[in-house]
Amino acid sequence: MDIVRAFRLVSIAEAVSFLVLLLVAMPLKYMADMPAAVSLVGPIHGVLFIAYVGVAVIVRQQLGWNMTRTILALGAAVLPVAPFFVERHWTKPAPVTEPAGRA
Length: 103
Fold this sequence. Notes:
Elements: H1 3-31, H2 36-63, H3 67-76, H4 82-89
Helix pairs in contact: 1-2, 1-4
């Protein structure tokens, strides 16, 4: 499996785990007095978050990301649905352009 594909899978998994944590586990903890839900989902999300950050740093060069895009992709990890955007729109390799003056 290439690293870009791995990043796409980790990105989706991290975003889904974040949504499950926010929309399922946290309400169960506070509204149904079931703290075990967060105890289960929290560590899974934590591992996926660390994997997302690590693989984003590794894949940035292959995708042609500049520092700004890299920082935005890393920041996306703390927003519930932003990794879906990163996976959908930023995981295609940057187009190779010819230097000016060559024909």
